[in-house]
Write a structure and sequence with these properties.
It contains eight helices and six strands. With 197 residues, the chain is of the alpha+beta class. InterPro entries: JetB.
Length: 197
């Protein structure tokens, strides 16, 4: 029996921990080079390799079986609170706006302050403004922890920290989810306007 390590082992390990992006050049190049072998190997583990070569990211999904309980869980499944979901939708919307603009860069980078200003339009402000802004900060930190934001510049002034909005968010929050959210938001705004008149 051969003890030879598969040439794409490091990519498998990386994928099991989270998405692989084109910015991780070594793993990305290997992923593209061994794409066919990876797909076959991962299927044996009950996993599907999802690759978006245009946007430069790849991640794993479980193969859904009839007997869900018999399946081995390789990939962490996260449940998001309503507020966390709203933050993800807002980040996804920022990505959509960026992609429709005449941007000359491939990556969307925003200061924490800019994300907060955008989010403020969609969250109801609580009685205390300080507590309200702290909650938005918490949601930004949670989005980073869950791999949707990547801090690219640390600053002593927290609001000046810079984050890259990772393109993987496009796979997690699709156009249909965005459309539903904005329909609900429009209805909510109309309701508030009617109450004020």
């Amino acid at each position: 029996m051969s003890n030879k390590i598969l040439p794409y082992t490091t990519v498998v390990v990386k994928l099991l921990k989270g998405p692989v992006e084109y910015l991780d050049k070594n793993n990305w190049d290997k992923l593209i080079q061994y794409k066919t072998e990876l797909i076959t190997f991962l299927q044996q583990l009950g996993l599907i390799l999802v690759i978006d070569e245009l946007d430069g990211y790849a991640f794993l999904k479980h193969i859904i079986t009839d007997d869900e309980t018999a399946e081995v869980s390789w990939v962490t499944r996260r449940a998001f609170t309503y507020e966390e979901s709203v933050m993800l939708v807002l980040l996804r919307e920022m990505m959509a706006e960026f992609e429709m603009s005449e941007a000359t860069t491939r990556e969307l980078v925003k200061k924490r302050r800019e994300i907060k200003e955008y989010a403020e339009l969609f969250f109801k402000e609580k009685a205390s403004r300080i507590r309200f802004l702290k909650e938005i900060d918490r949601l930004i930190d949670k989005a980073e922890e869950n791999g949707f934001l990547h801090m690219v510049e640390h600053q002593d002034i927290i609001d000046e920290q810079k984050f890259r909005i990772r393109k993987i968010i496009k796979a997690k929050v699709d156009g249909e989810v965005l459309e539903q959210f904005f329909q609900q938001l429009q209805a909510y705004k109309e309701e508030i306007a009617a109450e004020q008149n």
